[in-house]
Design goal:
Layout (H helix, E strand, L loop, with lengths): L1 E5 L16 E4 L9 H12 L5 E4 L6 H5 L1 H10 L3 E2 L3 E5 L2 E6 L2 E2 L8 E2 L1 H9 L8 E4 L9 E2 L4 E2 L3 H10 L3 E4 L7 E5 L2 E5 L14 E4 L1
Parallel strand pairs: 1-2, 2-3, 3-4, 6-9, 7-8, 9-12, 12-14
Antiparallel strand pairs: 1-15, 5-6, 10-11, 13-14
Helix pairs in contact: 4-5
Length: about 210
């Protein structure tokens, strides 16, 4: 199976050149203004792509999803999209877990948390056996360097959980300037952010095969 990964399109999804594949994964921040029209436009685009499965998690900019959850879920169901919010699915025997939550390092919006205790409560929901982990934000130390903060902005608790669980792939976004791929131990880490600081599409989706 060929997986296509992208994140942080911020309303500019129409400018993305999407390669062919079997499963597409979007790691959140689908919107800029996060209103009904913008969300609907994204879901029509995403749902219309030629993939057998389409997986989506939200991001901290996706306030519409947090505030109007049932309305969003109805839209998602109409477009045959698998929306994951600390939940898992299985595709061709591979387990995929997704979460929208982001450590609040002065970042705006939805699905944010503060401190170690909140982080532990959220990330304990990651199964001990998972093949593909999809989060909006990165674990600390893996493609998480933020120029705005001049620091690694990822979550230490998430890092510890990921290094314990050892998924084959951990896919995320959030830190636009740290786009890329890194291998560590048994896992491959992918920051699939497509936009720059001005929210222009400057990167291409990342592909891998299982």
């Amino acid at each position: 199976m060929k997986f296509v990964c992208l994140s942080d399109t911020h309303g500019n999804h129409g400018s993305v050149n999407v390669p062919q594949g079997d499963v597409i994964i979007h790691c959140g921040d689908i919107t800029h203004k996060s209103n009904h029209a913008e969300v609907t436009d994204f879901l029509i685009w995403f749902g219309g792509l030629n993939f057998s499965r389409k997986i989506l998690v939200a991001g901290n900019h996706d306030r519409f999803i947090r505030k109007r959850k049932q309305e969003f879920l109805d839209l998602v169901a109409a477009h045959n999209i698998d929306y994951l919010e600390n939940t898992a699915i299985r595709i061709n025997g591979y387990s995929i877990f997704g979460s929208p939550f982001t450590l609040n390092n002065a970042c705006i919006g939805a699905f944010t948390y503060h401190g170690t205790s909140e982080a532990e409560q959220i990330w304990r929901s990651i199964p001990e056996k998972v093949d593909i982990l999809v989060t909006h934000a990165p674990p600390r130390g893996f493609m998480d360097f933020s120029r705005a903060e001049n620091n690694n902005a990822g979550c230490q608790v998430l890092r510890e959980k990921v290094l314990s669980v050892k998924p084959r792939y951990h896919i995320f976004g959030h830190i636009h300037e740290s786009y890329g791929i890194e291998s560590y131990g048994d896992s491959v880490f992918i920051n699939a952010s497509l936009t720059n600081g001005s929210e222009e599409i400057v990167n291409i989706p990342v592909l891998f095969e299982l």
